[in-house]
Amino acid sequence: MGLAAWTVVVVVLTGASLAVGARVIPLHDVWAALDTPDVTNSNHVIVQTLRLPRTVLAVVVGVALGLSGALMQGVTRNPLADPGILGVNAGAALSVVCAASFFGVSTFYGSVWFAFAGAALAALAVYAIGALGRTGATPVKLALAGAALTVFMGSATTALLLAEPEIRADIRSWAVGSLAGKDMETVLQMSSFVLVGTLLALVCGSALNALALGDDLARGLGQRVAAARAVGAVAVVLLCGAATAVVGPIGFLGLVVPHVARLLTGADYRWVLPYSMVIAPAFLLLADIIGRIAVPPNELQVGIVTAAVGAPFFVWLVRQKRMVEL
């Protein structure tokens, strides 16, 4: 029932996303644009060419980031784990900007492989740095290493954007996380990678429950710890790399959504993962709608809205529930 309720929320926000913007379009016009589009009707053209791809993209990216955040927290047993905090998004973004700056790569299929490589290398670098010392890769050390590398890679990305004036303006908007300006073909191309990552993520539920008990106990229960972590890592790279290649680095979403899911379901990852998969698109759709109407006639990129709205909520969440460990 909870999953059904959140699915209804996503459907309602999807309708709102198609109707709300610089021009408010009546719902009957939205439905007509989807059912029997008329190329001579400006409202239908706006829905079909601008808002429908943007809305579908928000849903797909929300699924990707919500699942990847829950996976990272489960695999590392770190409540602070998030693709933004542990440098995965920043690594993918830096790699995509390098591809555009040095090799002239501008298509999705050209960028996504750079994004995968950047996400994987960033994750390995954060873990290697966090594992230094006698205490190993503790949650705090991983978070600090991730924050340091995120700042470094973010600075490098900004430097490349400033040094390359010929890079298109939409790349600069992409660098702060934006859903605007994408066509349906790009969304469908990205969706194939997200679908594979989603399937890999959903089969990890039982393994993550075992890992939550500790590596030794998980092995005693017959769990292949290294294999489980490897599958989770591949899923995270697919989900984060594909999402970042299209919309840029959107932080915070993967951090808070799994905690909200745990408040609703408990610690069982067989429920946390599906709940994260539906809560994150709802949050991202709402953030995008807020960004469209907050500063008319302009709009705020969704990455800015998620950070501004989500950070205080996360602080409140931690203070209320005292979630200091998983």
Automatic annotation (TrEMBL):
GO molecular function: transmembrane transporter activity
Sequence intervals crossing the membrane: 52-72, 84-105, 111-130, 142-163, 193-214, 226-252, 272-290, 302-319
Keywords (A to Z) from UniProt: Cell membrane, Membrane, Transmembrane, Transmembrane helix, Transport
Annotated membrane topology: Multi-pass membrane protein
Primary residence: membrane
GO biological process, one term: siderophore-iron import into cell
Subcellular location: Cell membrane
Domain of life: Bacteria
Pfam family, one: FecCD
GO cellular component: plasma membrane
UniProt keyword Repeat present: no
Gene3D superfamilies: ABC transporter involved in vitamin B12 uptake, BtuC
Family: Belongs to the binding-protein-dependent transport system permease family. FecCD subfamily.
Name used for this protein in its record: Iron complex transport system permease protein
